[in-house]
Amino acid sequence: xxxxxxxxxxxxxxxxxxxxxxxxxxxxxxxxxxxxxxxxxxxxxxxxxxxxxxxxxxxxxxxxxxxxxxxxxxxxxxxxxxxxxxxxxxxxxxxxxxxxxxxxxxxxxxxxxxxxxxxxxxxxxxxxxxxxxxxxxxxxxxxxxxxxxxxxxxxxxxxxxxxxxxxxxxxxxxxxxxxxxxxxxxxxxxxxxxxxxxxxxxxxxxxxxxxxxxxxxxxxxxxxxxxxxxxxxxxxxxxxxxxxxxxxxxxxxxxxxxxxxxxxxxxxxxxxxxxxxxxxxxxxxxxxxxxxxxxxxxxxxxxx
Length: 304
Description:
By secondary structure, the chain is an alpha+beta fold. It folds into two domains: 1-36; 37-300, Jelly Rolls (Sandwich), CATH 2.60.120.200. Helices cover 20% and strands 34% of the residues. It has six helices and 17 strands. It has helices at 3-35, 39-46, 139-142, 183-186, 198-201, 284-292, and strands spanning 47-51, 61-62, 69-71, 81-82, 89-92, 101-104, 111-115, 127-136, 148-157, 160-167, 175-180, 204-207, 218-227, 232-238, 241-249, 261-266, 270-278. The protein is globular, with a radius of gyration of 24 Å. 37% of the residues are buried. The model has no long low-confidence stretch (mean pLDDT 92).
């Protein structure tokens, strides 16, 4: 073997060793990155309320009251009964996205709700949060004429310091996100119904031809930040994808927290499952993770 060949073999051997070392370090780095993925534990830490409906309508996890309540009307809150007491709404096994879910069959009077206090991280100064749930319906076939809100969170009504999503009143129906501040600020001199007011409609984020259909589930995520500041922002995600954002929401949201509730299924007909609420707005990665959970939010409750 001449000197040139010997040197060449040494160089090749050294290069091979470097490649092996680089490959090992890269593999170790990837393993460490997998280990450091704290998305699920971060979601768990931010969770303030969760109802799977798998065993009953009592929330699986809540920082506030876990009970569902039924009232004949919003003006009759003093008549609230613990539990689900509307014959047109049932909890049925196998009807949820994961296990059991709520089944809404008729448009009727009365409401069901969970109390907001402590279950939502309301703040008078800088309010952030997120609301996640699943819906299954064909809006054109299942819904009766009129607006309907699968969820509405407020202490007064849809038009006064409220967060909600709704379907418009006639086919083809749009799906909209409403994040509406204090009514006496945005509409101090009301004329006619607010839901037909151009000022009101400018405060909505709408989706035409939303991805709903019979036999399939659609994930809804309401993400909001900076409410009760001059830089409020709210976004609507469907199936993990951003569908619209409203920025510079500067109207205040003034709540009498003890009177605020998380109302479900106002005029809604269809299936509803896996309701979760978080104390801050979520990152895109967290939203995608929520959408992709194999067994729903229940699976993050066991994260350590």
